[in-house]
Amino acid sequence: MMPRQPVVLHLGPLGLCGVDEAGRGPLAGPVVAAAVMLDPGQPIDGLRDSKKLGAAARERLADAIRARAAAWCVAEASVAEIDQLNILQATLLAMQRAVAGLGRAPDDVWVDGNRCPNWAWRSQAVVKGDDKVAAIAAASILAKTVRDAFMCRLHDEYPAYGFDRHMGYGTAGHLAALKAHGACPQHRRSFSPVKHVLDQAPLF
Q1: What CA–CA distance (Å, rounded) separates 30 from 23?
Q2: pLDDT tens readout for residues 178-191
Q3: What is the C-alpha separation between 96 and 98, in angstroms, rounded?
Q4: pLDDT digits (tens, 9 = 90+) for 16-44
Q5: What is the pLDDT of residues 128-152, one digit of tens each?
Q6: What is the distance of C-alpha 194 from the center of its chain?
Q7: How far is it, in rounded angstroms, from Cα 37 to Cα 47?
Q8: Beta strand pairing status for 16-22 and 31-37?
Q9: CA 33 vs CA 18, 149, 179, 183, 184: distances in Å
């Protein structure tokens, strides 16, 4: 069997900030965005799309990113903001907050996906960037680990929903719990599965 080749991601120009989000699709919890500027003098092995990493690897890499990145910031848009603005605009808002919170101005901002927020920084969207660009992969890892940790804490507060298993996504078990218990304060009431359940079930 041939040895598995390491994943090599594009480093991008100096002064590059990578941006990615976690939590656009779930029925509960905030949407979280991260911005990362990597330090070329302190490379981090193993960066890749957070969805292609196990939980332990994500946590190990998140620690390395926080320790070695030139700058990083994680920000969110709340459930209330998602319901008020819609999920796309809330995601763009979280991204703006993350880049603004870096503490230094990036030369370029590359965003995972097909659109960038309306902001002052020179930027470009990179489709599947979390599997192509190291700084975007690092941002995806930070966003995912921070959001997962939030959902696990939310499970401690509302254990009936199983947030620690599905992280708020609309699994069969989550929908069944919604029908049985109604919505908790962290459910996105603008999302149709939640709205449908609320039409038939009492609030938590």
Answers
A1: 7
A2: 999 999 999 999 99
A3: 5
A4: 999 999 999 999 999 999 999 999 999 99
A5: 999 999 999 999 999 999 999 999 9
A6: 21
A7: 13
A8: antiparallel
A9: 11, 14, 30, 24, 23
One-letter amino acid at 73 equals: C
Q: Report DSSP letters for the chain, one per residue.
A: -PPPPPP--B--STTEEEEEEE-SS-SBS-EEEEEEE--TTS--TT---GGGS-HHHHHHHHHHHHHH-SEEEEEEE-HHHHHHH-HHHHHHHHHHHHHHTTSS--SEEEEESS---S-SS-EEEETTGGGTBHHHHHHHHHHHHHHHHHHHHHHHH-GGG-HHHHTT---HHHHHHHHHH---TTB-TTSHHHHHHHTTS---
Question: What's the gap between Cα 127 and its chain centre?
Answer: 16
pTM: 0.93
Contact yes or no for 94/31 (Cβ under 8 A): yes
Beta bridge partner(s), residue 18: 36, 110
Cβ neighbours of 191 (radius 10 Å): 19
- Single-letter code of the amino acid located at 97: R
The token pair at 59 is 């946590």
pLDDT at residue 143, rounded to an integer: 98
Whether the CB-CB separation of 44 and 18 falls below 8 Å is answered with: no
